[in-house]
Automatic annotation (TrEMBL):
This is dihydrofolate reductase. Belongs to the dihydrofolate reductase family. One of its GO terms (cellular component) is cytosol. The lineage of its organism: Bacteria, Candidatus Kaiseribacteriota. It is an enzyme of class 1 (oxidoreductase). Coiled coil: none annotated. It comes from the Bacteria. The keyword Ribonucleoprotein does not apply. Residues 1-165 form the DHFR domain. InterPro entries: DHFR (IPR012259), DHFR-like_dom_sf (IPR024072), DHFR_CS (IPR017925), DHFR_dom (IPR001796).
Amino acid sequence: MTDENRVIGNNGKLPWRLPSDLARFKENTQQTGVMIMGHNTYASILERNNKPLQGRKHIVLTRNKFLSSQYASVTFARSVEKALMEVTLSGGRAFVIGGGEIYRIFLQLPEVKRLYITTVYAPELSGDAYFPDIDMRYWKLIFGSTICQWDTKDEYETSHEMYLHLAQ
Ligand SMILES: NC(=O)c1ccc[n+]([C@@H]2O[C@H](COP(=O)([O-])OP(=O)(O)OC[C@H]3O[C@@H](n4cnc5c(N)ncnc54)[C@H](OP(=O)(O)O)[C@@H]3O)[C@@H](O)[C@H]2O)c1
């Protein structure tokens, strides 16, 4: 989820309330069952839900060697290579769910083949986490929705796009 200025987060939280997109996120990630995320994003999930997201494995990147998880569904990976190894051990497919630092790293890897983007049409929002500025010439648009308020409780209109990497 990103706004038109690539803002994705502020103060460790999402800067909008979009139930329709959270439902879409849940459906997509439950299908794959495995998610890669940065430590800050994991912290924001715990803050919001008090526990990890149900039914999905969380591979959390951190350089902190002293962390250990109290949850069977959460594995800490100390490097990108170890995170990718965990994905292989977990069936070979995963969603990279952010945040900014993690998107920046993973969007440069050949393993990343699809992009699911929600664009949020919000007036200028303050943010401290951003989606990277990627070269869209290497991505082919496969699906693009209309711009719409998909749920009456959504704070803003959104559109959804799916891209495939052209090298795949
Ligand atoms: N709009 C969206 O779709 C979306 C999605 C996800 C998150 N968000 C938002 O984005 C913000 C969080 O993003 P962020 O950029 O601050 O943090 P982040 O990407 O979630 O996590 C960064 C952390 O990951 C670890 N890390 C990074 N590179 C690593 C590497 N190469 N090896 C091992 N560990 C590594 C480090 O953890 P340690 O410091 O523990 O070493 C680093 O501090 C929040 O506001 C969140 O709500 C938005």
